[in-house]
UniProtKB/TrEMBL annotation:
Segments passing through the bilayer: 26-48
Lineage: superkingdom: Bacteria
Keyword Transmembrane part of the UniProt annotation: yes
Protein name: Septum formation-related domain-containing protein
Organism of origin: Tsukamurella pseudospumae
Disordered as annotated region, ranges: 313-336
Start and end residues of each Septum formation-related domain: 71-288
């Protein structure tokens, strides 16, 4: 299990790659890192890693649009980034401008590759975003730093305009719409109860999908840790786990609407915790969720909501866990 001082957010495990594991911060990556068997139900705790800088989207616009975009400007576009235009930040938008990086690529530099832009972003944008927000961006929250450049035609004519900013992206690296300025929002990576998070072909979580599609986990509750730790400079990982170990089972029972809903589902109850950097950045919310894993490293595909009669785990109907001495349960295929 990760150490309390580990900068990786504690949400449902994660392997590190540089700078927070997935580079441009687009995809949720989560691995289950620890487990304790309690009353026949397996509880996982760990850290979500939502950033993927290996799938940085190519975000390009005309130099004119970027040049006019001052810190605090919110931008949006259709599928084609060249349609980028400023909008009121209270409206749906895909990028919030933090400022201009200290330096850019040389005038004779070729149109940069995604890896080149990622390198520029990682080197130049963090201090710009920190100065703009007045605090650090949660390294494991739902908002990610990115870099906008002039489009290829503008670039080839000598336009080197760039803007650092903040966005939300899905598992494929596509910018998602959000409303309001980042500084006014809880940066926590959470989803409403009943949301299912997809599964990559490597057994890692991606982003929200329909529950009828194969997925890694299903959210049962969002927990605001301020209720338990209103004055804490940072509740330790163990303090969070002790609290969530008490509240997640009751919240999940309420979500199912029955005392034996979790057992009948055949799934495992898990939750995430917040690292000290995430807490310091202002994140306060975590999730309780249902998942299945055979090795505590990768997720087993789930199809259908945990509440649905057609629930399948790894393509098979769920088998209810039993307590010691209990009569083995038959596979559950009927309505719950």
């Amino acid at each position: 299990m990760a150490d309390d001082t580990d900068p990786q957010p504690e949400t449902a495990p994660a392997q590190k790659s540089r700078a927070g594991a997935w580079t441009v911060r687009a995809v949720l990556a989560a691995l289950i890192v620890g487990a304790v068997a309690i009353g026949g139900v397996l509880f996982f705790t760990g850290a979500f890693e939502p950033k993927n800088e290996e799938k940085a989207p190519r975000l390009a616009a005309s130099g004119t649009v970027l040049a006019r975009s001052k810190p605090g400007t919110c931008l949006t576009w259709d599928k084609d980034p060249t349609t980028m235009a400023p909008v009121d930040c209270l409206e749906s938008h895909k990028f919030e401008v933090a400022g201009e990086p200290a330096r850019t690529l040389p005038e004779n530099a070729p149109y940069p590759t995604e890896s080149a832009i990622a390198a520029q972003r990682d080197q130049l944008c963090p201090p710009v975003v920190t100065e703009y927000l007045g605090k650090r961006l949660d390294p494991m929250g739902r908002f990610q730093t990115n870099l906008l450049t002039a489009g290829q035609k503008a670039w080839e004519s000598g336009d080197r305009t760039m803007r650092c900013g903040i966005q939300v992206a899905d598992g494929a690296g596509n910018a998602l719409e959000t409303k309001g300025k980042v500084v006014n929002q809880d940066q926590s990576l959470t989803w409403p109860p009943g949301t299912c998070i997809g599964l990559s072909d490597r057994g890692k979580p991606t982003g929200p999908v329909e529950c009828t599609k194969p997925h890694a986990l299903e959210v049962t509750s969002v927990i605001d840790l301020r209720q338990a730790f209103p004055d804490a400079s940072w509740p330790t990982k163990q303090q969070q786990e002790d609290y969530l170990g008490r509240i997640c089972p009751s919240r999940t029972t309420g979500w199912f609407g029955s005392q034996d809903g979790l057992r009948k589902s055949g799934l495992q109850l898990a939750w995430n915790t917040l690292s000290q950097p995430s807490w310091t950045a202002g994140s306060r919310s975590v999730i309780c969720f249902l998942a299945s894993s055979k090795d505590t490293v990768t997720y087993t595909p789930i199809t259908g909501s945990a509440k649905s009669p057609g629930l399948l785990i790894d393509g098979k109907p769920p088998v209810m866990p039993t307590f010691p001495g209990a009569k083995p349960a038959e596979p559950s295929t009927g309505p719950r």
